[in-house]
Amino acid sequence: MVRLLGIDPGLRFTGWGIVDVDGNRLCHVADGVIATDGDTPVPERLRLLHDSLLELVRAHRPHEAAVEETYVNRNGSSTLKLGYARGVALLVPALAGIAVSEYGAMAVKRAVVGTGAASKDQVGMMVRRLLPGATIRRADASDALAVAICHAHHRASTLRVMAGTRMA
């Protein structure tokens, strides 16, 4: 069994989700959102994000992590701040010795829903279907679980290729 941590980074809300993978079975472990106050200076918000992610890594001991890649929007300042949060999300597991993979939003949607043009609602619905019993309170947590699911699928394919298993 392998435990995966999925992270959907954001400076205001960073979603996180943890799943256990046993063969082709997925099991929801935990999910949530790390929220920071927009009135707090950015360095303090990044410290809170770092400390919270570090506590998650220590508490749940994931074997691997996956982080959603940054998309570029029209507001350069917002994109830069998202990049700060994403840097922390990549750094915390890496410093803990955990392998980190990155996936674009379209790859995550394709892995979970089957199309890169899926809406947030469609992703959320499929995450709930793939992880029965998960009580997801925010879309950010659902997105993080989707990143973990995407990594589980890619990981399984990579392991099959490395083992020389032919897929039908």
TrEMBL record:
* Note accompanying the cofactor annotation: Binds 2 Mg(2+) ion per subunit.
Q: Name one GO molecular function term.
A: DNA binding
Top-rank EC class of the record's enzyme: hydrolase
Required co-factor(s) are:
Mg(2+)
The UniProt keywords, alphabetically, are: Cytoplasm, DNA damage, DNA recombination, DNA repair, DNA-binding, Endonuclease, Hydrolase, Magnesium, Metal-binding, Nuclease
Give the residues annotated as active site. D8, E68, D140
Described by its record, this protein's role is as follows: The RuvA-RuvB-RuvC complex processes Holliday junction (HJ) DNA during genetic recombination and DNA repair. Endonuclease that resolves HJ intermediates. Cleaves cruciform DNA by making single-stranded nicks across the HJ at symmetrical positions within the homologous arms, yielding a 5'-phosphate and a 3'-hydroxyl group; requires a central core of homology in the junction. The consensus cleavage sequence is 5'-(A/T)TT(C/G)-3'. Cleavage occurs on the 3'-side of the TT dinucleotide at the point of strand exchange.
Family stated for the protein in its record: Belongs to the RuvC family.
List the protein's name.
Crossover junction endodeoxyribonuclease RuvC
The beginning of the lineage is: Bacteria, Pseudomonadati, Pseudomonadota, Alphaproteobacteria, Acetobacterales
